[in-house]
Each structure stands twice: as structure tokens, then as C-alpha cells.
Design goal:
The complex is a heterodimer. Chain A is built from nine helices and 13 strands. By secondary structure, chain A is of the alpha/beta class. Chain A has one domain: Rossmann fold. In chain A, a hairpin with a 2-residue loop joins β5 and β6. Chain B is an all-alpha fold. Classes of the chains: A alpha/beta, B mainly alpha. Chains A and B meet through α2, β7, α3 and α4 of A and β2, α8 and α9 of B.
Chain lengths: 278, 349
Amino acid sequence: MTRTTTGTTKVSGAADASPARLAAEGVTLAYERRTIAERLSLDIPTGSFTVVVGPNACGKSTLLRALARVLAPAAGRVVLDGRAITEYPAKEVARRLGLLPQSSIAPEGITVADLVARGRHPHQGLFRQWSVADEAAVAAALAATNTAELAGRPVDELSGGQRQRVWVAMVLAQETPLLLLDEPTTFLDIAHQYELLELLRGLHRAGDRTLVAVLHDLNQAARYADHLVVMRDGEVVATGDPGEVLTAELVERVFGLPCTIVPDPHTGTPLVVPRLPA
Amino acid sequence: MSVQTPARAVVLRSAGGGFGIRIGVRHALVVAALLAAALAVGVVSLGTGDFVVPLGDVVAALLGQGDRRTNLVVLDWRLPRVLLALMLGAALGAAGAIFQSITRNPLGSPDVIGFDTGAYTGGLLVIITSGTGYLATASGALLGGFATAVVVYLLAYRRGFHGFRLIIVGIGVAAMLASLNTWLILSAELNVALAAAAWSSGSLNAVGWAQAVPAAAVLLVLWAVAAAMSRRLHLLELGDDAATALGVRTGRTRLVLVVLGVAFTATSVAAAGPIAFVALAAPQLARRLSRSAGVTLAGAAAMGALLLTASDYAAQRLFAPTQLPVGVVTVSVGGVYLIWLLITEARRR
């Protein structure tokens, strides 16, 4: 495969052995006439917990939306299991790949159980609208996200942290081997951010799911990712194991933030400490 | 496990698992009760009028055991009108539910955003240019409705679909079309103008089997499509990104739904003229009764059928023997609802 992006530091990560099920091949991403990224290529290592980081407007969410075929690339293609993602029927993609978008709308008055049940759509048909498997998947998703006791509550009445767990439950009910999450921790307070990240790590460890999340916080990214993707100005600048990728030099080059990297006292993962005049 | 206010549902499933469906109990009960009420009003309507038929005789006639005179009154004169009120009410309710769902706004209803008015313009143009044949008028109404939908959709389209923009543009287009309609009637010859004006507020006074049969045939097809599209309609409510991720082709789905909603609206305009406010009120009233998540097609249709049969009964009886157009009744009742809706929507912001 050809890499057209220049200046990519590739550090082999732990989960990088098997061929990627999901990859972007020379994609150009644009909204109307505004180009976000040109000829971008990226492999998502199968079985990894990949986290994409980068400054605001670097194109990380746009890339994730393209990987989830929510945004059609202006050029290039996204490949899912060896074929262009656009060649699959829409529901077939939805059985392999789930997305938690940055903003979703809960219909007024919908209950948690009903919202989570909507995640089963790709597995249902006109006559097979509610199978035993649907029921089991919804129950498992509610249990995994610790939202089973909220099942009968209207989503409008929940706290921000609870609501985000319910949305995660909906994409879990979809039972896809690939799960993409677009800034899942935004709008959550710090305790709920870690609660959600722990939930994602638990999901990743429990099965052979591949997780891809866009995060803002470098320290959280380094702590939870086993594969880090760093972007700037629509380009992938570095990929690989966070411990090797995340250097003071890189953070300064990408974010323009002078810093020192110290090992996290609890986990040993890189911790970014800004070095700013007092 | 303790669950607060459980969402009670029953599951129907075939032994092989090839068929399975989950039904919210409260929603199903509300739909059944509304339909039963609409049918009851319909049966009462069949018995009332200048020639009063006792309830027992009405039922006998419906079962094919009435005498010749009762059959004539109940089956030939009154039944098509009652059936049309039921069918068109359901069609208007469904059209309202579709547009309120895709605009995510209780104001997004075909009578508010100009599709009724445009369908009426189409019918009016046919009446003025080539006379009053039913099928010609109906085709004019369908074309007018679709042309209006295309214009509103294109004017409202900017970097994707925006429900609120569609409503604002639609209200503007509706106002322009309403003045065009007035001008058309004023400049037409007297007998044409009278025929057109009687139709202008929506009336079931002059309908018979000639309108009921074609309308029923078209609506059956539309209902089959609506049933197949219903789940995708509800997935679109989650937002385009989430719906796409769940395997819905959002652009194509929305297009089919808009065409379906316009077809429901135009079919009813073709049969009975623009009957306002049923599409606006029915989905929201049904939603409040059934406490469903958002509007539902079945609830809106059942409520629409009840609203229109009851309104038509009132239109016949309020100032009997003078017959009001049913649209006058729905406008009077619906106007109050619209004011209430605007006040509560304004307070929420």
C-alpha cells in the first residue's frame, strides 16, 4: 500500500500484527468547497483501541466520519474488509461498523430501552422486527453500560453522564466488531470522562472489538489507547504506541505547546506537563 | 431489578423466528380506542340526516340485510362520505406525522408549509382551464402538491436539509399561493368560481363513490409504503449521522418520505379540497395520549380519522339543515390548537 502522506513517523504498536479491517486509502475530505484533508491514508489495526488526537480543526472528526461512511470522500476510498465501503449495502456496513456521533438527538419522551433497541435496526427486517437475539443484545448492552436500572426512564430526564452511557449502549446493541466514537467524553465532567473511558477499555478487553475514538485530552489518549494517531492540518503526523509516539518534541510541533513528558505515576503512560512561563 | 415507569411492551413472534414484532401496549391501546371511536362516530353519521335511520337498521344495511330504501340512504348516499372522512383523516394524520418527524417540529405540517395550498392551486388551474372532471382535478392537485414540494424543498436546501428552514420557506410559499388562489377565483367566470370556492375550504358535502373508490385505491398503496418506511422514519429522528451509522441511506429515505407525505396530502386535496389542521393536530394529540417517543404513523392516522369523522359530523349537524364545509370546522377547532401550540413553543425557547 502506498503512503502519500509525508513526514509520518511510524512506530509499530502492539496490536499491529493482523491486516487492517478498516483503512482509509488516499482519501480527500471536504465540506462543500472547504478541503479538510488531502490524500490521507490510515490503517486501523484490527483489535486495537485506537485514539485519534490533534489540535482543533485538524480533521480528526472528519476522518472518523469518513471511516464510518457518514461523509463521502471527494477522492480515494475507505476500505472495509477488503472492499470499498460504498460497495456494501447500507445495513451490511451497519452490522460490521458502529458509530457514536458527536451529536445525536433523542426523540422527545423516548425511554432508554426503546432508544437502545433502535441500535438493532441493521439486524432487523420488515417482518423480523424483534427477535430473541435483539432482546439479548439490548439486555447485554444495558448491562455492559450499567444502564439496566434506567431502562424504563425517559432519556430527557437523565444526567449528561447517564445519557452518554445510554448512547454507548445503543451502539453496543448494534453488536459490531468495529466501533467508532467521535469525542465521546465531550460535555462530561472529569469523573464521568474517566468512567466512560474505563467502560470503553472494559469493552475492548472483554471482546475482540476494534475501538477508534477521537479524544481531546492527550493524557487520557495516552492512558487508554494502545495505538495512537496524531493529526495536524489534515495530515497524519505520527502513529503507533503512545509511549513511543508521544514525545515533547511532537507535542510542541503539533500543538505548539512547550512541555515536558513524565511517566504517569499510576500507569507509567506518558503524561504531558505544559512548560509555560509562570 | 426495579424499573420505574416500565415501558410495557408485548412481543409477538412466530415459532421459526421469521416473524417478530414488539408493540408498546399503551400505544396499541390508544390506537385501537381512537379507531373504535372514529368507527362509532362513522356509524352514527350513517344514521343521521334528513332521513333518520335507527342504529340497528344502519348495522343491518352494512351487513347487507337492509331494505331497499335504507340501503339507498346508508350505502349509496352516506357510506362513501363516511369512508372518505375515515380514510382522508388517516391520510392527513400520516402526512402530518411524516413532516413533523423529518422537520423535528410540531409546526412542520403540510397544511402549514404550503403543500395543501399548492395542491389546491393545481386543482384550481385545471378547473379553470378545462372544467371540473374529477380525475383531471385530482391530477392537477397531485401535480400542484408535488410542484410546491419541489419548490419549497429547493428554496430551503442549503448545505443539506434543515427542518426549520423548510417550515419558514413553506409558510412564505403558502402565503403567496393563497393569494394566487384568491386571484384565480376572482378572475374566473362565475359558475367556475362558485364550484372552485365550494371546494376551497375542504368539504365532503358533495362526495360519492366516484371520489371514494379511486382515493381508496391510491391510499392503500401509500399505506403499504408507509408501513415499510415507518422504522426508517424513526431512525432519521436520531440525526443523520446516527441514522447513517445504523444503515439508513438518509438522503434517499427522506426523499421517499417527502414524496409519500405529499402524495397523502394531495390525494386528500383531490378528493375533498384542502382540509386544514387535521395534519397539524392529529400527530401531536396522539403522541400526548399514547406517550410515545415522538409522533407515530399509526397514532397520527387513527387520531386523524377520528378528528375528521367527528368534524364532518359536526359540520353536518351544527347548523342543520345548512351543511358547513368540514374545513370550516377543522379550521375553527384547529385554530385554537395552533394558537396554543405557538404559545407553548414560544415559551420553550
